[in-house]
Amino acid sequence: MKENILIIGGGIAGLEAAGQLLKLGYNPIIVEKSDHLGGHVADWNRLFPDMSPAEDLVSRLIAASSEANIFLNTEISFVNRLKDSWNIMLSNGISIITRILLFATGFTLFDASKKEEYGYGVYNQVMTNSDLEHWFNTGQDERIPEEGPAAMGFVHCVGSRDEKARNPQCSKVCCITAVKQAIEMKQKFPEAMIYCFYMDLRMFGKKYEDFYISAQKDYGIRFIRGRVSEVSENIEGKLVVKAEDTLSGKPVKVTLDLLVLMSGIVCNQQTCKTAGLLSLPIDSDGFLKSRDNIADITEAPREGIFYAGTCTGPKTVPETLAEARSAALEIHNYILNGM
């Protein structure tokens, strides 16, 4: 009989891990709280830096894990520790006995309305990075007219590297996401003037720096180093954005038709709730705490529990997939070594 391995989360980390565990001869069971697989990536349009369609990756991962048992719209309701395993009660009434659990619970985006100075939920022309991706996928958002904005801006680090927002950590992917989205908007509306307001540009990944240089050189996107201090609305209904250009030391004021807030990555509260059922610690950054942050990041402090992806902190898609493969191998070795 194949060993049951419960995977909490059906995003790209959970799907990749399930596909690898199937190849290794196990019976992965995916529990996903939403009504679809693929997590946040399934809601994205294109992926940096190659601009490949997100749906292609998600479809490939779903196909590779299609033989797994999958429960959508389902959460963990109750956990009972047995002698050498867990009895996991799901919200759909099903009970699962397993010796291994893999957290692939992902992240949530910072609630941009908490940064009142940016006007999200106050001014109609302010949206988030997630809202813009939805428009890329559907073409439906009244904030973006058919002819496109004449001028628009992106604000980096919304809810990240921010002590007031109680999140001093870098979200790692906001800078490159802003560059990607700015290029996509410039491709759709070549005449638009596009600004990016940033603190520091953190282009650490493969080809990210090339992507940033292309945004300036090939698309004419303007990058202004400085935090936005205020967003207001003028008598014509346009946005007035005030910031300080810290490179020149001069204040900047621009009038825009659209402003996109790059909401940062934070750990979702459902993950913390489920972790509490298993007495798993939360780290100082609000994410799940691994055995250590160097060699054992995919292992929980408790035996038989593993982590993959952004449940332990912000990561790119390639990093998330690599961690999922690593976690699957760690689980396999753990079982082979007699647990």
Query: Quick one: CATH class of the largest domain?
Result: Alpha Beta
Give helix and strand order, one letter per element, not per position.
EHEEEHEEEEEEEHEHEHEEEEEEHEH
Task: Indicate the CATH topology of the largest domain.
Answer: FAD/NAD(P)-binding domain
User: Uncertain regions: pLDDT < 50 for 5+ in a row?
Assistant: none
Notes on the structure:
This protein is an alpha/beta fold and 339 residues long. It has two domains: 4-107 and 267-336, FAD/NAD(P)-binding domain (3-Layer(bba) Sandwich), CATH 3.50.50.60; 110-265, FAD/NAD(P)-binding domain (3-Layer(bba) Sandwich), CATH 3.50.50.60. It is built from seven helices and 20 strands. The mean pLDDT is 95.
Helices and strands in order, then pairings?
Blueprint: E1 4-8, H1 12-23, E2 27-31, E3 46-47, E4 52-53, H2 54-64, E5 69-71, E6 76-81, E7 86-90, E8 95-98, E9 100-103, E10 108-109, E11 126-128, H3 129-138, E12 151-158, H4 174-188, E13 193-198, H5 208-217, E14 222-225, E15 228-233, E16 239-245, E17 250-256, E18 258-263, E19 265-266, H6 269-277, E20 305-307, H7 317-336
Parallel strand pairs: 1-2, 1-9, 2-5, 9-20, 11-18, 12-13, 12-18, 13-14
Antiparallel strand pairs: 3-4, 6-7, 7-8, 10-19, 15-16, 16-17
